[in-house]
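A further point concerns the way the authors explain their paired sequence and structure data. Showing the layout once, in full, would remove most of the difficulty. For illustration, here is how one protein appears when written out as sequence plus structure tokens:
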Amino acid sequence: MEFTHIPVLFGPTMEALAVKPDGIYVDGTAGGGGHSSGILKRLTTGRLICIDQDPDAIETLRKRFSDSDRVTIVPSNFSEIDKVLSGLRIEAVDGVLLDIGVSSHQLDTVGRGFSYHYDAPLDMRMSQSGQTAADLVNTLPYQELVRILYQYGEEKFARQIARAIEREREKAPITTTLQLAELVKAAYPAAKRHDKHPARKTFQALRIAVNGELDRLSEGLDHAFAMLRPGGRLAVITFHSLEDRTVKQRMAQWLQGCTCPKDFPVCVCGRKPQARLVLRKPVEADEQELAENPRSRSAKLRCCEKL
């Protein structure tokens, strides 16, 4: 199956990155290459590094950019951007793009087990290696399941769902997406089953846990910012509040200057801002993009520039 992913907030992202024709840029979550292609078109003598952990994406990127000698494709997680660039003997870059979360290809490829709409093995691994969602569901203690569902899915009924999982797996392992989705639906209060799909938050939480997404995001932000040269820009697209909150807070740290008490006559902490915001507020999809790509409805773009 061809790796397809409609690049969200494409225009605003290209504008925020302000690509220099001779610059070095990193697309840390290159996917099908939509944003990467936009960056490449704006380069003349510059260089583009495409990183992705999904083998399907890597195969697609290699085909898409096979005729370009300005593109380097590296199978890795964006949290290891510092190691990737060090391996390429690149000391600093002019821009980094991170498009966080699950791709359309991953959602729509039934066998990957990301969606609660289709019956498939309960997998959810972006890298297609390591432990699966089924491993977590069938082995984690009750309290850990509750923590994951509440913390990563912001699921109000985490305890009820975890109890239902615990009861079910005592009878037989939970191995498929629809098996889990129906179990979650049954655990939900009847009055709440028709608001949105009851399994939505549970699937989000398990996906984040399986892929260590929030830890990778935190690491990736620090490493990406560290690899920027002065004037370099970091653009990040997020799709849910947990991701956006992490990005917002990290950028706020980089923006913070002197922390001395206001009654100090002179600064003694020596702290100076490390960055400035390129976008004062996060950019969201306009009506036209929402009509063309409904999955862009939760996307938010933030961007800062290193001082």
Notes: The longest helix spans residues 213-227. The first strand starts at residue 24 and ends at 27. The chain is about 40% helix and 15% strand. Strands lie at 24-27, 47-52, 71-75, 93-99, 228-238, 275-277, 300-306.
